[in-house]
Each structure stands twice: as structure tokens, then as C-alpha cells.
What we know:
mainly beta, 7-stranded antiparallel sheet, 0% helix
Amino acid sequence: xxxxxxxxxxxxxxxxxxxxxxxxxxxxxxxxxxxxxxxxxxxxxxxxxxxxxxxxxxxxxxxxxxxxxxxxxxxxxxxxxxxxxxxxxxxxxxxxxxxxxxxxxxxxxxxxxxxxxxxxxxxxxxxxxxxxxxxxxxxxxxxxx
Length: 145
């Protein structure tokens, strides 16, 4: 427990996580590659002086398919518990498509659906432009971005 000399409540936070990433590259060298990543996170906190414990789980799964040299399609699935109410959950689904203009410029269009217990449903669209200045790792830019 972290103690404070000014008498304010002390807090202790712990966060634990793990992930698994699977990458499949086309053995024939074509632009037909897949990637999947799963991550889980557990967090808990203890708030003094009442020693209130709060905890929650969260996870996401992300999959992506390379369509050709410059185009990718993917989807991300998110889920989390409310740390202060174990009976409330929120989840989201986010499909997207990415286009690489060059190794230094990427455009992405994404739709996101979020819903859950006692959470208003949201439908969002995102347009993203990502550019790189300077050096980058020595690999082909189309290798599973």
C-alpha cells in the first residue's frame, strides 16, 4: 500500500497482460499474408482507507488480410468489464480497409460499432492518414502493415 503523509487516500494499482501474435506469410512470396493478435489485460486497484478493491478484465482480437501489395482489410474486436461493476460489459467491432500510397503514406477507412450494458450504442466512422518522416526498418513496406 502506498502511504501519503498528507492524509489523502492511498492507492495501489496493478496491471497484468499477455498477448499472442500469429503471422502467416505466403510461402510462394505473393501478397497473400495474414496476421492475428490476441491480447488480454487484467487490472486491479486498492483504495485506502476503506481498502476498496476494484478489478476488471479486458481483451482484444485483431485480424488482418493482405489483399495485394498495397491493400489490406482487417477487423478488431474489443471487450472489457467495468472495473466498478462486474456485471457491466462494453464491446466494440471495428472493420477497416487500408491503402498504402507508398512506404511513407497510408490511408485507412474504419467503421466502429460500440455497445454494452448501460452504455449508449455508438456508430463511428474514421478516416486516417499516416505518414512517416525519416528512416524506417529495412523491410518491404508491404510486409504486413
